[in-house]
Specification:
- With about 140 residues, the chain is mainly alpha-helical.
- It is built from six helices and two strands.
């Protein structure tokens, strides 16, 4: 399973905002410079994060973007789902209950369910604060 470049960049953007420590707003121009990501691409990413309620924006000379809560209150799962929509490794696990007509006799369903559980457990217990701590 591969996560998109958009998701990788979203985590980097969120880390930039977390590193600011809630001290005002951070411009996308600064994030683009520090992370080597185009501003246009960051605009697409930040709009999804705003819609998910993970980031707040402010216009004007002192405007930019900031986190809506502390880094410890964000899991990487929150961020990944805001960008990717979900983390199911196979289509039949995207909805509950599983609507696949082969689910009852599927020899691989247990494997895919276990993989999804492992991924979900990991991303839902790793916080933005954890990632921030790893950068120090």
């Amino acid at each position: 399973m591969k996560f998109s470049t958009r998701t990788r960049y979203a985590l980097r953007l969120m880390l930039e905002l977390a590193a600011a420590g809630g001290e005002g707003y951070v411009s996308l121009k600064d994030v683009a410079f520090h992370q080597g990501i185009s501003i246009k691409y960051l605009e697409q990413i930040v709009s999804r994060l705003i819609r998910a309620g993970l980031v707040a924006s402010s216009r004007g000379a002192q405007g930019g973007y900031r986190l809506t809560r502390t880094p410890a209150e964000y899991t990487t799962g929150d961020i990944i789902r805001a960008i990717e929509g979900g983390v199911a490794p196979v289509a039949c696990l995207e909805h509950s209950p599983n609507a696949c007509p082969r689910a009852d006799g599927c020899a691989t369903l247990g494997f895919w369910t276990g993989l999804q559980t492992a991924i979900t457990t990991y991303i839902d217990t790793t916080t933005l604060a954890d990632l921030l701590e790893n950068t120090k």
